[in-house]
Amino acid sequence: MSLELGSLLTALTLVLLSLMMLYVLNGIIWRGVVVPLSWVFWGDRRRTIWYHLALFPGTVIHEISHLVACWLLMVRVIEFQPFSLDPNRPPGWIRHQRTDPLRSTLIGLAPFWGGSLALLLLTRLLFPEFFLADWFAEPAGLSGLAPLLERLGQTVWHLLTQADYTRWQTWVFLYLVFSIGLQVAPSATDLATLPGGVLLVVGTLGGCYLLSLVLRIDWTALPLIAAALIWVADLLMGLNDVLLYTIALVLLTMLLLLPLAWLLARLSR
């Protein structure tokens, strides 16, 4: 295996692991924070205006992420509602024309990138005390999974211990991270197209590999393809750094809100 192809596969594997970690964390926050607090403060978990208002920032960014993906992939948008106070409908939604599995998958996964970039800009521009420039000094994950998890844990601990909890700005930031992080993962509807997109990508790569075996062609020996592989690998590593930073921020809010949600739920019984 060539160095270029190995770098691409490594970057792709790290991105997939980060996406799965974000998805799992999203589920933990829903079950451990949103559900208990919604019954304490709002009663019906999905049918109150207050519930929608609490999720407002994350909902808007979630839907705008889908919208931008549609624009970039040239898919016509039929209906777009970034936020709704209607208690009988979802907090937000978007409908677009039917398209091929690959573009449908990319549109469905757009909140991962949109929410992560929003949190990065939020910390960089409005809450610099939570922005760790050293995190982006070098790509994370190249030294292995164990060092990556250790670095992630150290980052969360640093954010947790260095935050000034007497400042109202800190709690505004934690609320925004909670709302955006809660909506950073795609919904069940968004993920419905994922199998088709994955099969298309795997089938295309597998077909190219089989063709190279039959024709005895080393694709990576071609300068243009080698350069493209390196560019894609670097892009994926950069995106993975952003995803991992989002994971650190989501872990920070989860560690603070899980005990609070549990305590309030117990006291309200």
Describe, in short, the structure shown:
The protein is 71% helix and 3% strand.
How much of the sequence lies in strands comes to: under 5%
Instruction: Name the shape in a single word.
Output: globular
Mean pLDDT: 80
Helical stretch count?
Answer: 10
Class based on secondary structure composition and strand pairing: mainly alpha
Number of domains: 1
Strand order of the largest sheet: 1-2
**Helix proportion of residues, in percent?**
over 70%
Describe, in plain words, how this protein is organized in 3D:
By secondary structure, this protein is mostly helical. It has one domain. It has 10 helices and 2 strands. It has a two-stranded antiparallel ribbon. Helix 3 (about 55-70) packs across helix 5 and helix 5 (about 110-125) packs antiparallel against helix 7. The longest helix is centred in the last third of the chain and has 45 residues, at about 225-265. The radius of gyration is 21 Å and the shape is globular. The model has no long low-confidence stretch (mean pLDDT about 80).
What is the topology?
Elements: H1 3-41, H2 49-54, H3 56-72, E1 77-81, E2 93-96, H4 101-108, H5 110-126, H6 145-162, H7 168-182, H8 188-191, H9 194-215, H10 223-267
Antiparallel strand pairs: 1-2
Helix pairs in contact: 1-10, 3-4, 3-5, 3-7, 4-9, 5-7, 5-10, 6-10, 7-10
